[in-house]
Amino acid sequence: MIPWDIPTSDEEIPRLTHIYRNQHFLVWLAAMDLESKDIYILRTVEWKKLIEISVDPKRQRGRRSKLISDPSPEQP
Known about the structure:
Number of domains: 1
Low-confidence stretches: none
Radius of gyration: 20 Å
Order of helices and strands: EEE
Strand content: over 45%
Structural class: mainly beta
């Protein structure tokens, strides 16, 4: 969840105008030997996703944000 206001403020004025996220994902394909309980990593897949969103706090909820960045993730 992203706050719309400064948490220490008593005013209820939305101040969020921009969101920038640099997300990094790391996933493993693994197998387990059921007898020995050993785990073997078969493959590691890693990718990144940069998300940039512009926010107009003056617009009504549901219409405040607009995706600026490319919506497709960087391929692994």
